[in-house]
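I hope you will forgive my troubling you with a question about protein structure. You will find the record immediately after this paragraph.
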Amino acid sequence: MRKSLLLLGVMVLAACGPGKKSGPPTLFQWEDYVQPPILADYVKAYGEMPNTVIFADEDEAFAKMKGGFKPDVMGPCLYELPRWREAGLLQPIDTSKLKNWSKLSPTLRGLPGINAGNGKVWFVPHYWGNTSLTIRTDLAPEYAKSQSWNILFDPKYKGRVAVLDGVDDTIPFIAHMIGIDAYNMSDADWQKVQAKLKQLMPQLRFVSSDDTALAQGLASGELVAAMSWRNTFASLNKEGKPVSYLEPPGGIFTYVCGLVMHKEPSDEAKSLALIDSTIGDTASRYAIETKGDEPANLDVLAQVPDKVFQTLHISRDLESFLKSGIFQQRLKNKEKIVEAWTEMRAGVAPAPETKK
């Protein structure tokens, strides 16, 4: 999951304060999570701004680091962790040095593949969200009732549905619809998934992970249904639009994004402080109240008004909710899947230009 935001990295530099033995650490992160509330606790502790570099997607970030770029702290999503770890880019993080670690969801602290042993982890959960369908309940009331994802294939709505462009979202989603676990696909399974994707192509108005394009399409009625992240739904729900976020039997997909530390940080203590700042209370309030993502920090979520949960349409019993879903994982043979998906969607019209 995550959002393609900018095509180029942007670096914000701050001078090193007097008497400092090392310069500020560098955070390599999505655009939404380099804002002042994310960095506030670090700035308070060290009296300096960390460097921030933005990546558009994790493929760009991975390639840049493989090419020699050495940030201190990075913000990939969980499905990327195995690739970054296997490439030798990371070192484990000592959770005893994170004052906010105990505030994080036990379910997220126990995610498979993150434990490095001896109280250390490869990945510190930061925030999470979901992938499902946002639909216009007034335009497709039968699907609001059934909660079925089959609206994507309904001839009645041909040309009025959209899906996300990333394989980590769309491929597992469509595979799940036909009873296939995308994370453990055989060659025969992948052939079935490709056949279903080919059936989907003529149905689509466009393919895009642009939140604004999806939200505007749904708001105008150009789209009746769109695969989206929960924050897209929440923005429309907050505006009073007649929308629903479908939750069919079997659970919906959950992405988890977090923090990892480079194997050669410029200053380990500062890097740990930057991670702690990112999962701290100020940063976590920003995540849910401003960005519509759910922070891993349960202490903050306990303080959030019911109205916020109602806008997001999620239960306050977050541990049960998280356990009921399907966590996004690494896709095997991802390069082959990306190649096939790119070719399939080449004939679909691009998303319309958004209105700012």
Summary: The mean pLDDT is 92. Residues 1 and 169 are 6 Å apart (CA to CA).
